[in-house]
Amino acid sequence: MATDTLLTAAKNHLKLEPMHKVIIEPIKKGASGRTIVRIKPEGHQTYIGIHYTMERADNANYLPVGAFLSKAKLNVPEVLYDNITRQCALVEDLGDKDLLSLKDEPFSFREPYYRSVFQQLDKLFFSRPPKDLEFQPPFDAGMYIWEQDYFFDGFAEAYLGMSDSETASLRSHPALKEMATQLGASARNLVHRDFQSQNILIHNEQSYLIDFQGMRYGRQEYDLASLLFDPYMDHSAEEREQLLDLWEDVTEERPLDDILTKCAIQRLMQALGAYGNIVTKQNNKWFEQHIPTAVKLLKELCAGTALEPVLSPVLNKSS
Q1: Span 2-92 CATH architecture
Q2: Scanning 21, 82, 108, 170, which has its CA 20 to 30 A from the CA of 262?
Q3: What class, spelled out in words, does domain 99-317 have in CATH?
Q4: pLDDT tens digits, one per residue of 289-304
Q5: What's the whole-model pTM score?
């Protein structure tokens, strides 16, 4: 079992006796298909243990991408031990405090942590990975179309129960292809790919990035939109504007409204596809509570655009 493998890894790393007391606590967050636990050896510091399989191609990227980000001086957990053969690793334990845990705090309290994470995103923009480091397939037009199909498959059909005949004309709508083509024309920056509040830990008053195994080339605005329109946080329009002001202060630039809006639409379509898929196929009901917020945000973004007649038949069905 995965926990047995991680227990053996911890004892080997620390050179512990076979009967040394080690407590393992499950960490039930996300839906990456990995086993993630907190390992607490008596008399030693705690670790985060990660056991992964090859069922998802991006799981193999965690360690090499983490090494690159660490070398580039980004805030990420330090990898303390890894065993590729056994597909497990021990990484620094940064605690449980993430951006989501600060949701009910006033914006003034959260602002320093968003500044810190924006600094990380800006640093990622200028980082140059080694040529032999392989990332996941880039955000080209085909990847954006895949996300759109994921929305119709996982959310419209699997979760809402819409039929193939109901979604067929929506999937093929030219407005969706046009958006995918426009966004896919530029894929020159590294993108975290799942840049949301649960994947940003707070440690020593700084923001740290985790779950970066899906990193790939794409548009930086995709990550920015993921954070601004995060269904878990449900930022108000005023807070999103404050975050954009903060982003401009950190980077000395402001994204084009059209590109940011389309990236946000893409991201929310992907998120709803994931929520629907996880709820229906993995029976993980935790994500269901965030569907109404994601739907609300997507309605807001597509209102008055060429995408409104495409998405409204689905979004209205979920109301």
Answers
A1: 2-Layer Sandwich (3.30)
A2: 108
A3: alpha beta
A4: 999 999 999 999 999 9
A5: 0.93
